[in-house]
Amino acid sequence: MSLLSRKLIVIAGKGGVGRTTTAIALALAAARQGLYTAVLELNGASGVPELWGFSGRDYAPRSLAPNVDTISMSALDTLDDFGIRRLKLDALVRVLFHNRVMDAFLDAVPGLHDLIQLGKVNSLLHENYPQDPKYDLIVLDAPATGHGLTLLGAARNMADMTRVGPFYEEARRIEAILADPEHTALVIVTLPEELPVNETLQLAGALGPDQDLLCAVVVNKVLPNPLPPGVAWPRMREVLAASDHPAVPPLLSLADRTAERHRDQYHAFRRLSEELPHVIGREVPIGRLHRVPHVPTRNDLAQLGEQLDAILTRASPDTEEVA
Amino acid sequence: MTEPAEPSTVRVEVCCGVGGVGKTTTAAALAVGNALAGHRVVVLTIDPAKRLADALSVEELGNEPSEVDLSELEAEGAGTLHALMLDRKKTFDDVIRRFTPSADVAERLLDNRYYRAVSERLGGSQEYMAMEKLYDLVHDGRWDVVVVDTPPTQHALDFFKAPERVRRVFDRSVLGALVQPKRGLLAMTTRRIAKTAQRMVGDRVMNDIGEFFQLIAGLSAGFRDRGEAVYGLLRATETRYYLVASAAAPERTDALAFLETLKGDGMQFSGFVVNRVFPDPHVPEVHIEELPGAPEDIDETAWHGALEALLHLKDEAQETVRAHRAAIAELSEHVPEAPVWQVPDLGDGVRNLGGLAEMSAWLPPNEERVVV
After folding, report:
1. Do residue B177 and residue A101 have CB atoms under 8 angstroms apart?
2. Do B266 and B171 meet the contact criterion of CB atoms below 8 Å apart?
3. Which residues, 6 or more positions from B229, have their beta carbon under 8 angstroms from its beta carbon?
4. Which residues of B touch A245 (CB under 8 A)?
5. Cα(A248)–Cα(A237) distance, rounded to whole angstroms?
6. Between helices A150-162 and A165-178, what is the axis angle to 10°?
């Protein structure tokens, strides 16, 4: 079953690894295959619009490209919806939900913010309210806290805590879609470095019941081997070192550094691909996104989307040689 | 025997910033640097990666400070270094035990389902407990420098804002009225809200919350005073803040919001720490034909391609250098007087205590210098 046949893809990973970049690239790739896709951020995050060059955040969908929207929701945005759709409070919503006491109450229930936002995600995908766009796929850029995984547990915790009532029912509905590997996929983003790879392996091991959701690991910011095939760096270095051009010594040390970085990357990548199947108990595709030397532009993001598209449509897992 | 430090003279250094910029490593390196400068230092880390815990050579970094052996650095005149890792649940439980009148009430509170959910999962409890722990460390008397790492968040400001959510839970005047209404005193709207709340979460949760409020009614006045003392500590002149950023993605908007708040609240900004700055390779102008031609054992076209690739590497490096410089300039544009501590890209990260010492050379208390 392919990644893009799911309805919801959760992009997890530690801060700074490029979750947002990956989320946009994935959405662009999905749109190329004809899926009407939304990249969604929670808790009022605005990483997507910032990368795309939009100002501020907006709960209303904004178009990034044909077939790709971005939405930034907050608990407050989705609260009224929850009152109207789940509690049938229609006329009362404004009086009840915009009150200091109610506000304090809603703020004081752990996991509630996550729950009502996920409820809206569920509603966007499955309830077809006439005023909502009808997405084929939602790519969720998970919050940085706890690698974005606290989100997956939010519904379970809420169901455990309440046992009855509308929150319980909402939690059960959300749990049903989040726990279903045919519906929801988890993609972990990491970097080709020792530390992030270690953390990814730990994270994969700690997934527990959510292990089945893990569909792919994306290794971001991969430095491609700069040398064309047929030239080995040590030999090239030897030949160049004989030159007395003043540019040669700094060029050599730059290339040495790059080669070293490349080697580290190779080892990190190999460790990930060797150990991940043991941790998860099955093969998990590992994709690679190339590094860009600056904050990615729209053009870079589109190219990263093409890279992902190529990886996703390839039958076998990514096996391109790194070293 | 050294004199115990007076709380008012203890220097506090707080590393703020969004997640993923190297805050924890920066805090550890700042601590090592201060210890090397002769201070008695403790560093409070939040969820350090295993390798960093190893670098601080603390087997299982616990919720209580343990000493880091600095002898391998062979530094003359070094002070001492302790490290600990925040355990929010344990810290919260300790606070409850300290401010509850009887052990029995404390145990019942610690056992209360609602309390457990708040202490383990409510957004902001980690930040709140980091502040609590910081207060303890400052008043311990064993240290004259306390370095604090902050939880990974979306915005640097969350460190100050997030605890508010937990504090409000303990403010009985608002929520307490909902679950323990005094008969007749409840206004119509509040009554309706209480009913809706009950409908939403069910009886069990409302009962848990009700019991929670009964139990915290016994929290001593010390609990509230403590909150005010922590508030004061965060604004003390001896408490300084660094904004840690990564050279590749400096989060300028976030930084500006952070600086505004510090200024408005009278907190001391100590400067930026910009991690992973790419050093300029300083390659003079060079054309491909000035470089050696293909040796006999390498195909001419392949050789030419390899030289082009090498020059492309140079162009890319220069582009990265330019991008990092521009990002740093943009960051400091709004507080030109604030120092910018630039830490060069140290490759595959900091591996051990020696690595932290190496990184600390780029940080205070050393002189600010620029990666070249």
Report:
1. yes
2. no
3. B135
4. 286, 290-291
5. 10
6. 140
Question: Least CA distance to A100: which residue of chain B?
Answer: B174
Calculate the alpha carbon distances from A221 to A292, B49, B108, B221, B359 in Å: 7, 20, 50, 53, 23
Alpha carbon B370 to chain centroid, angstroms:
24
CB contact under 8 A, B20 and A14: yes
Question: What was the ipTM of the complex prediction?
Answer: 0.88
**Which residue of chain B comes nearest to A227, CA vs CA?**
B306
- Nearest CB to B168 within list A16, A108, A162: A108
Q: In which residue are the tokens 């590749």 written?
A: B248
In whole angstroms, what is the distance from residue B299 CA to residue B297 CA?
A: 7
The DSSP result for B279-340, as a single string, is PP--PPP--GGGS----TTS-HHHHHHHHHHHHHHHHHHHHHHHHHHHHHHHHHTT-TTS-E
Nearest to A87 among B200, B317, B320 (CB): B200
- DSSP label at A94? H
Residue B112, both tokens: 């209360």
Which of A231, A262, A271 is most worth mutating to test chain B (most B CB atoms within 10 A of its CB)? A231
CA distance A185 to A11: 9
Q: How far apart are the C-alpha atoms of A227 and B107, rounded to whole Å?
A: 65
H or E stretch at A141: strand A137-141
Task: Please return the burial class of B198, using the count of CB atoms within 10 Å of its CB with bins 0-12, 13-18 and 19+.
Answer: middle
Interhelix angle A233-241/A248-280, nearest 10 degrees: 170
Q: In the numeric block, which tokens belong to residue B122?
A: 């409510």
- Measure A183 CA to nearest chain B CA, in Å: 26
Per-residue pLDDT of chain B (372 residues; tens, 9 = 90+): 578 889 889 999 999 998 888 899 999 999 999 999 999 999 999 888 777 887 786 667 688 999 999 999 999 999 999 999 999 999 999 999 999 989 999 999 999 999 999 999 898 999 999 999 999 999 999 999 999 999 888 888 989 989 988 988 988 777 877 777 665 556 777 888 888 888 888 889 999 999 999 999 888 888 888 889 999 999 999 999 999 999 988 888 889 899 999 999 999 999 999 999 999 999 999 999 999 999 999 999 999 999 999 999 999 999 999 999 999 999 989 889 999 999 998 776 688 899 999 999 999 999 888 887
Q: How far apart, in whole angstroms, are the C-alpha atoms of residue B180 and residue B190?
A: 12
Whether the bond between B365 and the residue before it is cis, its omega within 30 degrees of 0, is: yes
Residue of chain A whose alpha carbon sits nearest to that of B308: A227
Q: Show Cβ contacts of residue A231 under 8 Å, excluding neighbours closer than 6 positions.
A: B298, B302, B303, B305, B306
In a mutagenesis test of the A interface, which of B47, B213, B310 is the best target, namely the one with the most A β-carbons within 10 Å? B310
B210 touches chain A (CB under 8 A): no
- Rounded Cα gap, residues A269 and A287, in angstroms: 10
Cβ contact B118:B166 at 8 Å: yes
B195 in contact with A, Cβ within 8 Å: no
Instruction: Point out the residue among A17, A228, A230 whose CB comes nearest to the CB of B20.
Output: A17
Report which DSSP code applies to B47. S
**B4: exposed, middle or buried (Cβ count in 10 Å: 0-12, 13-18, 19+):** exposed
- Pairing, β A137-141 against β A8-12: parallel
A163 vs B168, B202, B306: nearest CB: B202
Measured in degrees and rounded to the nearest 5, phi and psi for residue A286 equal: -120, 120
CB contact under 8 A, B201 and A162: yes
